[in-house]
């Protein structure tokens, strides 16, 4: 039934695509990007119903005044801007580490795939909960560096458990637990 499950997301996207033209543009977009005051007020009334939206409109006008000198760049302009190279390199490194970490290339028996999928989902949920609660306390740099250190330690333990799993059968269970811990460490850190 994978084909039905995968086609469901396509069906939802198709429904969104069909109904999207009937929705108004975002009021901040109309005011800040298009500089259309009347369109902004019309969109506010269309989205939120009849009412007095002068406070929200005044807030948007203040935001427009603050960002008046700021130039909005497209993707190519951002890529050419040298001041954002460190951030772009960091993002590229993080995305490559996700693709090259090997989590998407695990070869499993078909009978245990549902359990592994459930375990991965629970591990990701745990990492989201922990990350959102500790990121303000420790900061992103600490989570990145600490996450990579913990991931490296887990990978060393995982390799050791895989090498010794023929001699000690209980190490196979440890390997699965270490994979889940790796996912949690990756989610909390990088």
From TrEMBL:
Gene Ontology molecular function: any one: D-glucose transmembrane transporter activity
One GO term of the biological process aspect: D-glucose import
Subcellular location: Membrane
PROSITE patterns listed in its UniProt record: MFS
TM stretches of this protein: 6-24, 112-135, 142-164, 170-189
Domain of life: Eukaryota
One Pfam assignment: Sugar_tr
GO-annotated cellular components: plasma membrane
Main localization (coarse): membrane
Protein topology in the membrane: Multi-pass membrane protein
Keywords on record: Membrane, Transmembrane, Transmembrane helix
Record domain Major facilitator superfamily (MFS) profile: where: 1-190
Keyword Membrane: yes
Gene3D superfamilies: MFS general substrate transporter like domains
Protein name, entry field: GTR9 protein
